[in-house]
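Human: Can I borrow your eye for a moment on a structure tokenisation matter? Separate attempts, laid side by side, tell us more than any discussion would. Could you pick a protein and write out its sequence and tokenised fold? No explanation is needed for now; the record alone will do.

Assistant:
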Amino acid sequence: MTSSSPQTTVVGSYVQPGWLVDKDMLRAIVPPRVRARDIWRVDPDELENAQDAATLAAIRDMERAGLDIAALEALSGKQIVLGVIDLGDDRVETAGIVAGRIRAALEFVEPDRLIVAPDCGMKYLTRAAAFGKLKSLAEGAAIVRAELEG
């Protein structure tokens, strides 16, 4: 992945697979709690391994979508992580819409201080919607990077 600015990352939760979590039960708990034993669909003795497998699947989705996974290591008090994806809607934004949101942020912050991300709460989306939004995030950031490097 590129280290050009702005970088991309994920903040908060990603989609939890249906084989791991009872999503109806998850939505019923306000606020959602991962420690709630009733939401898990796997045997308690296998829960840690299942959560690790789901985490690896989420990381692979982020890599496949083109996000800058290494950006997580770069977070510091000098960086601003800005949510540029609407997680209240399953419809996938276009890369152009995401690029416009990034451009608007760049009116107020230098590109090297900005890391763009979805907002928190992807666990409520379908996996297809979440992946599409990650892909638009990566592509929108690439559009803006190209403009900045122009």
About this structure: The chain has one domain: 7-149. The mean pLDDT is 81. The beta strands are 7-8, 80-83, 114-117. The chain is about 40% helix and 5% strand.
